[in-house]
């Protein structure tokens, strides 16, 4: 009881932060949670039982972790017969077990003020409202992508697409192939399409919308959600970054990078979920070889079989292939000069924040739109051209890497990279836009 009293006095408010159970969604919410904690708010992160068992939680992380059920406690999404079955189960069982968790916390005297939830899970807001709690929707993809789904939700942008040029407020002219794959290739993943458009189904009931359009909803932009300790080496001792689903091969990666000259290494990663076609893996492997550069390539365990035979052995002088790396430390390392990326939103934001030029090899979902922005809006890299089969060929990969590392366009891109790095740091620094928005969010949470 004494402990509970102390807790009440120490913390200004208590937020439950509910994540969608993949690495790319846990990371931004974890970072938001850490920033809330710095401002005196108690945070309990909530994920699924299956994911909570796989997480490598750093011992020093003070954020509490609780689990709810998606109906597949022994294997998660991989155990469901379809994406639709999984998402449906997560909505039903998740709503129920989230309500039970709230009940449990309330009975033990641990009062919750607000549920911060990934906008992929709008049912969390309905649960929050049933308990009389406030709800904050966090959009974990880019504003540009959310804007597209919002206009689909409103019926303004009709799918399947019939236009060859799409003009939406705040966006440059987009071609169909710049759209998220679920819109461009309408019908490819109907369950994901519904989930993404469904982000807006009850949004008008949310008390806060984090990272969206201020004119419509009570928006707070909190990005980039990259830990300031990585952007600013002042906070070197703050090592409590955690909750990795995959275990990073930190020592091997950093040791390997430490010996390389500034800007000489190509870093390659396709994120935590992409299952790249075998042919595409081969072409990337050849492109890397032909570029004649040193490379650090993250190939998840499940993807290893797709590497060309003997590739690792034959390229060991120039390359290091690992199953998972500490990406923030890698992107922050001066040896890295170029990032060949699938353009997942976290990777994109992280590269923008560290000022690392990108070669975009988008796979699906929001990644094509991100690649379009990387090349044509932020001018921070190139989108690798594809052939008629949708594959980035080895020559194209080689050419893009060379263009960035030593070409004329590379010089321009590096200049822009420097600018974005500075802007990102300013946003998250004390008094910056991101920092101020979090302050306002906390003030409203505490005072109303
Ligand atoms: C998914 C979707 O694919 C993406 O399109 C969407 O925008 C977010 O959710 P994912 O594919 O995993 O995410 O990519 P990304 O968003 O880039 O997130 C990957 C995260 O894992 C990044 O934060 C990155 O830093 C981290 N990572 C990746 C590592 O820490 N180590 C690695 O070796 C690779």
Automatic annotation (TrEMBL):
One Pfam family here: UDPGT
GO molecular function: quercetin 3-O-glucosyltransferase activity; quercetin 7-O-glucosyltransferase activity
PROSITE patterns the record matches: UDPGT
The keyword Transferase is assigned to this record: yes
InterPro entries listed in its UniProt record: UDP_glucos_trans (IPR002213), UDP_glycos_trans_CS (IPR035595)
CDD domains reported for this sequence: GT1_Gtf-like
Class of the enzyme per the UniProt entry, highest EC level: transferase
GO biological process terms held by the UniProt record: monocarboxylic acid metabolic process
Keyword annotations from UniProtKB, A to Z: Glycosyltransferase, Transferase
This enzyme's EC code(s): 2.4.1.-
Sequence similarity: Belongs to the UDP-glycosyltransferase family.
Protein known as: Glycosyltransferase
Source organism: Carpinus fangiana
């Amino acid at each position: 009881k004494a402990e509970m009293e102390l807790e009440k006095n120490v913390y200004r408010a208590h937020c439950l932060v509910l994540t969608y159970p993949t690495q790319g969604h846990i990371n931004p919410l974890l970072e938001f949670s850490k920033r809330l904690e710095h401002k005196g708010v108690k945070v309990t992160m909530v994920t699924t039982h299956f994911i909570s068992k796989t997480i490598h939680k750093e011992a020093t992380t003070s954020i509490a972790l609780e689990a709810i059920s998606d109906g597949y406690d022994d294997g998660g999404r991989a155990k469901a017969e379809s994406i639709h079955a999984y998402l449906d189960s997560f909505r039903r069982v998740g709503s129920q077990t989230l309500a039970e968790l709230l009940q449990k916390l309330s009975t033990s005297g641990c009062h919750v003020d607000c549920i911060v939830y990934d906008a992929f899970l709008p049912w969390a807001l309905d649960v929050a409202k049933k308990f009389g709690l406030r709800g904050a929707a966090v959009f974990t993809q880019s504003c540009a992508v959310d804007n597209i789904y919002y206009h689909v939700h409103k019926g303004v942008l009709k799918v399947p697409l019939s236009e060859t040029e799409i003009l939406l407020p705040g966006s440059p002219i987009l071609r169909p192939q710049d759209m998220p794959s679920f819109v461009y290739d309408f019908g490819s993943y109907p369950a994901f399409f519904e989930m993404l458009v469904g982000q807006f189904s009850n949004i008008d009931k949310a008390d806060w919308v984090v990272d969206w359009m201020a004119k419509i909803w009570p928006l707070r932009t909190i990005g980039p959600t990259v830990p300031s300790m990585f952007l600013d080496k002042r906070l070197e001792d703050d090592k409590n970054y955690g909750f990795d689903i995959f275990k990073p091969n930190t020592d091997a990666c950093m040791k390997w990078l430490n010996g390389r000259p500034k800007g000489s290494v190509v870093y390659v990663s396709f994120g935590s979920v992409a299952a790249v076609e075998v042919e595409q893996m081969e072409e990337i492997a050849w492109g890397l070889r032909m570029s004649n550069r040193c490379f650090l390539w993250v190939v998840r365990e499940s993807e290893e079989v797709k590497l060309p035979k003997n590739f690792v052995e034959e390229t060991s002088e120039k390359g290091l292939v690992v199953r998972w790396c500490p990406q923030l430390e890698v992107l922050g390392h001066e040896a890295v000069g170029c990032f060949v990326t699938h353009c997942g939103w976290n990777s994109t934001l992280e590269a923008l924040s560290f000022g690392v030029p990108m070669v975009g090899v988008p796979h699906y979902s929001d990644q094509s739109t991100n690649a379009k922005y990387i090349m044509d809006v932020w001018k921070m890299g190139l989108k690798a051209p594809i052939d008629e089969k949708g594959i980035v060929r080895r020559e194209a990969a080689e050419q893009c890497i060379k263009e960035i590392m030593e070409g004329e366009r590379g010089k321009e891109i590096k200049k822009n990279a420097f600018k974005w790095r500075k802007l990102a740091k300013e946003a998250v620094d004390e008094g910056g836009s991101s920092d101020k928005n979090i302050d306002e969010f906390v003030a409203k949470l505490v005072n109303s």
